[in-house]
Amino acid sequence: MHDDAVISNPLTSYTNAFSDTENEAVVAPARFPMWEKAAVICLFLLSTLLDCFHLPAIADGNTYYATAVKSMLLNWHNFFFVAFDSAGYLSVDKPPLGLWAEVASARLFGFSNFSLLLPEIVAGTVSVLLLYYLVRRTFGGPAGILAGTLLALSPINVVTNRDNIMDSLLVATSLAAAWAVLRASETGSFKWLVLCAIFIGVGFNIKMLEAYLIVPACLVTYLTATRGKSLRLRLAQTLLFGFILAGVSFAWVVAVDLTPSSTRPYVDSTLSNSELDLVFNYNGLQRLFGEPLYGKTSRLPSPATGPAGPLRLLQPQLGGQVGWFLPLAVIGLLAASWNRRRRDNRRQRRHGLTNQNQAYLFWTIWLVTAGSFFSAAQFMNLYYLVMLSPPLAALAGIGTIALIRSYPGNSLRWWLLPGAILITAAEQTIILSGYPTWHPWLVSLVEIATIAAAALLISLKSMPAEAPQGRRRPEHGFSRLGAFPFGSLPAIMAVVSPVVLLVAPLFWLAASFHPSNEGGFPLSGPIVISTNAVTDLRTDTRLTTYLQSHRHNATFLVATVAVQDAIPIMWATSEPIMALGGYSGYDPILTPTELAGAVRSNRVRFFLLPSSNLTEAEVKELYPQTLVDEPSFATRYTNQLSRWVSRTCSAVPPLEWQSSPALTELQLFVCSG
């Protein structure tokens, strides 16, 4: 029977989804029973509501990317080169497709926090429904609904969908690639493999090499599981896959690098003004090995990621973002493999890997590949972990159904269900232990609930397995799970007991709806960071008024060392601002000689630099009431360019440009042409 065969009886399709049948055709019926249609609608509403809840608190998300969208709306040149500023001096450190989607949304609905977040919200809901479909078509409706629900409730997935950092778009394209490669391995059709390469290439143009975390799973699945083709042909096709993937991935990168540097923005976070440099260094090897750009810290400090190692994902730092159901997924995979081992050995000798085994292989390799990278990476933001959410949710959903199937009967594998509940609860208590002041009673609640559920499951197994003579077991949905006395109580407990594992993640998710956990670097849970957005958009109106009235027709209103000092002025004035050193403050965009030429040609006249560039004599003259050794401001962004400005240009007295004159972190300098 074909695996899309129609099962006309909704009750039969539901019970077959829980049964351990040899016929995969009944696992994923083409027609949806009413209960499943209702569940899909609820899943859609759940995902959308969580992603849209209290959006005004998010403001404009990551203001670095939001500022780029404002600039890209101005003209096609800025749009194509993803320019950070309106004058096209600097580009952002990401490829274009994610930002292009936000620009399109802002063009349609006007520039606002809603239009910036809309592509991510849509991508988040699409990802949930895609994962449901991918799991459902092979493992049945209950497994699909559960997998989609776990993705919709994944804390890091929710906060990422509520931000403009574009990782949600990457998750959606990765799941589309998963759909294509699974179809390719099932049908042996090369066109599906080509479509997979295109989807991954699109993902590359959203977040660069992060999109390639799915590639090993795609290649191994196609090479080992595809039916009806020789190994030589499969190898040749995977080689073509690589060429297509490279072509789609690097088309825009090569186009930018072939454009003369004098006619395009400087590529941010690079030493050589090259997109290829950005791909393989800052967004590539440096993520893994953690070597900072230019020998200095090139980003705002990330929250602690925990020590690198095989247990990193189980520690509170990373586990709180994505690891709530990791033990459940692993033990569930063990149960699923145990359930199918003998039957699949016979099938594999005759027909190759079954569709379900292909799916097991794919989701497991994706999880292992991404998990290995994040366990070793030295330089990353925690929201990157969202790439672990789809395979983890898929395996946890599939595995939970396998654990429920394993519970009935006399096989020793019944103990996997209570064991999985206890081990997963232990992992959740480890995560919660990292935050002892946040709901300290929650650990006790998790422990009591899970121990009670596991104890009840064990006690039910100790009851006699034979039904009373003369009485027939009721034939309803859960009765297919096994032969138990007292109607379906044990079967119902097998289905209901894993729900206790949702308690802690739901509390964690509820704590995520807080402005401090969103913005430039979104995090889930009770993690409060004092400055979680890239920069504060507030600026002194006295400063902007002074700059505009004394500009003398300069191209740039002012120059700053790094983008975080430029963004507030750009939002307040909509004027071009020159971020001399890019995001980090250390991009070698200009030499002192080139900067002197820019001053002479009236491209820039004012410089807002760190006060560390003032001499001791200048501090005494400008701020006589301030002790020289009060705020030293260390050596923040003191480099060749800032030193040239401080030696060549004049410090502007604070009474002229500050509402409340005082020695602050920034000092305004003016240069004469």
What tags apply to this protein structure?
673 residues, single chain, 27 helices, mainly alpha, 5-stranded mixed sheet
DSSP summary: helix tally: 27
Helix content: 55-70%
| Beta-strand proportion | under 5%
Sum up the overall morphology in one term.
Answer: globular
List segments where confidence is low: pLDDT < 50 over at least 5 consecutive residues.
1-27, 293-302, 466-487, 529-533, 630-635
Largest sheet: 5 strands, mixed
Return the structural class: mainly alpha
Q: Give Rg in angstroms.
A: 29 Å
Counted beta strands: 5
Return the domain count: 3
Overall pLDDT:
84
Q: Whole-Å distance between the termini?
A: 82 Å
Strand ordering within the main sheet: 2-1-3-5-4
Description:
This protein is mainly alpha-helical and 673 residues long. It folds into three domains: 10-298 and 329-383, no CATH class; 393-467 and 474-517, no CATH class; 541-670, no CATH class. Helix content is 56%, strand content 3%. The chain has 27 helices and five strands. Strands 2-1-3-5-4 form a five-stranded mixed beta sheet, sandwiched between helices. Helix 23 (563-573) links the parallel strand 1 (558-560) and strand 2 (577-579). Helix 5 packs across helix 6 (113-139), helix 6 (113-139) runs antiparallel to helix 7 and helix 9 (167-187) packs antiparallel against helix 16 (355-376). The longest helix has 28 residues, at 231-258. The radius of gyration is 29 Å and the shape is globular. 49% of the residues are buried.
